[in-house]
Design brief:
mainly beta; 1 helix; seven-stranded mixed sheet; globular; about 120 residues; about 5% helix; four-stranded antiparallel sheet
Length: about 120
């Protein structure tokens, strides 16, 4: 199982950024997959999760309306579209999955067993 995250960078407040997570070594047609972030000195938190068997998503209230998780034509790649970014969104973003968990809600409220490397997002003027 391998998850490869990319797309981080420096963006101004109010800007947008799209992160990508490429999955390999397993078939992305059952397990939920999600994006999580960790700011310095803070706990890692979920920002969006997707159920790959029915495309149901879960996005917590604190980023709802700004963050969207989806898959493109290549079903093994999951994206996190982040709009109207704020300085408090600055963090290292990780994609994660649990091969035994199909629910996006449960994954976002639990803890993935597989992690990709992080990609740094910095929101600053």
């Amino acid at each position: 199982v391998q998850l490869q995250a990319s797309g981080g960078g420096l963006v101004q407040p109010g800007g947008s950024l799209r992160l990508s997570c490429a999955a390999s070594g397993f078939t992305l047609n059952r397990p939920a997959i999600g994006w999580f972030r960790q700011a310095p000195g803070q706990e890692r938190e979920a920002v969006a999760c997707l159920s790959t068997n029915n495309e149901i998503t879960y996005v917590p209230d604190f980023v709802k309306g700004r963050f969207t998780i989806f898959r493109g034509e290549a079903k093994n790649v999951v994206y996190l579209q982040m709009d109207n970014l704020r300085p408090e969104d600055t963090a290292v973003y990780y994609c994660g999955t649990d091969l035994g968990q199909a629910s996006s809600y449960a994954l976002c409220h639990g803890r993935p067993t597989e992690w990709g490397q992080g990609t740094l997002v910095t929101v600053s003027s």
